[in-house]
Structure prediction request, 471 residues.
Amino acid sequence: MQSFQLIIDGKSVAGDEASFEIRNPATFEPLGLAPTSSLAQVNAAVAAAKAAQPAWAALPDATRKDYLNKVADVLTSNTEYLAKWITQEQGKPLAGPGSMFEMQACVGWTQVPASLDLPVEVVFEDDTRRDELHRKPIGVVGAIAPWNWPLLIAIWQIVPSLRVGNTVVLKPSEYTPLGTLEMVRLIAAVLPPGVLNTIGGDGKVGDFLVRHKDVQKIMFTGSTRTGKRIIEASANNLARLTLELGGNDAAIVLPGAKPAEIAEGLFWGAFINMGQTCACAKRLYVHESIYEEMVQALKAVAEKMTMGDGMQDGVVLGPIQNKMQFDKVSELVEDAKSHGARIVTGGKAVGGNGYFYPITLVADIADGSRLVAEEQFGPVLPIIKYRDVADAIAKANALDAALGASVWSSDASEAMRVAQQLEAGTVWINQHGAIHPMVPFGGIKGSGQGVEFGMEGLKALTVPQVISIKK
Ligand code: NDP
Prediction:
């Protein structure tokens, strides 16, 4: 079986500690052996990043942009190769909004930051003085990526960091390290040594990285629980943080919406990557006047979609990525059933090889149920009936999770009125999860700190420096 390697200071190296096997979640077949770094290797990766950073930051902007455009070219020419790794390791199919889509997004999220500049801002000027705000790189970025969009989220962390002159040490999730290590092996080959490094292993290795005295910024996507640990760890090294934590996005369908017209958009808003996406619609509030029509329209869309091994033609829905997530989904659906909720479709694991759990629509469910209140992060959508729009807004805002939300309506001004009252980092109207590399994205309340993407995302990878000039 193939053993995968780390990249430290531009060289491929094996992990010092025992490697671990990665299996395909659709078949349980072994795929390869993932490396585990010793703590000495984490130190070596951080040291390489620290040593490479001043020269990388000193390059002209145009040169760093050229490097990132070469990275985009490597991603483009390896799209199919890396997409196959994503499908086999993570589970999302090659087709539909799956692994080819993830790779195309990797290219876009590389080209766009490569095209952006952070010009000096004159923040004050009069006859006596001129004050300029310059943006400086922070130093070494520790990037901790999750398993749901493993390559894309790594790119979200790596590319803006490099664009503004930081260097990076990346730890992929222990559930999905192989494709990410392959991607880094390919892109690090067109970068100077030490600029992009990888380490491998579990949360212990991640914890050591985020506490490291030479790491000045953490880019993290994952659970709220781990995010809180990272905040505690940053008390030691004062690392700046961008934390993209869990979501439990509400979608509100207003009276007068047309269920048949919005069902497909809502379906993918809830079920892209089998719901294993931080900004998926996880709670659907539907007005009583169109409740059953909406439930049936979603059921009709669900029945058209084929689930299976994502390497096969025609498959648009894959397995759940791992057993932890599979068990969590199963438990929350059983809890809903035991409290009398109606299973419209799905509701029971498929069995056999693979973590297959069908699209599950759960109707007639009470707002306080665990399936509604907890982030289930899977292919399940609880559909809650409401009478008053104000009540739906209050329920949507009642949770600590506040990453995204959406409003679905045929009345643009009413949709805007509701959107303005929702507590979430992004509120989409008549779409859900529609992220874009130019548009800032991040959670509020319990869903995180800071934003990624666009100019705001780039700024978050810099420290401001004021240069104040007497006239
Ligand atoms: P975690 O937060 O544990 O994992 C995310 C990343 O953090 C992984 O790379 C993980 O490494 C790493 N990590 C774990 N512990 C530490 C630590 N102490 N210090 C630094 N890094 C650490 O999430 P899980 O994968 O366990 O998933 C749990 C839940 O989190 C999911 O059910 C879902 O609700 C949510 N989640 C949200 C995501 C999002 O996009 N916002 C993405 C993934 C999960 P390793 O995997 O090697 O332990």
Observations:
- The chain has a mean pLDDT of 97.
- Residues 144-148, 171, 173-175, 202-203, 206-207, 210, 221-223, 226, 229-230, 244-246, 278, 325, 328, 375, 377 surround NDP (CB under 6 Å).
- The CA atoms of residues 312 and 430 lie 31 Å apart.
- The longest strand covers residues 129-137.
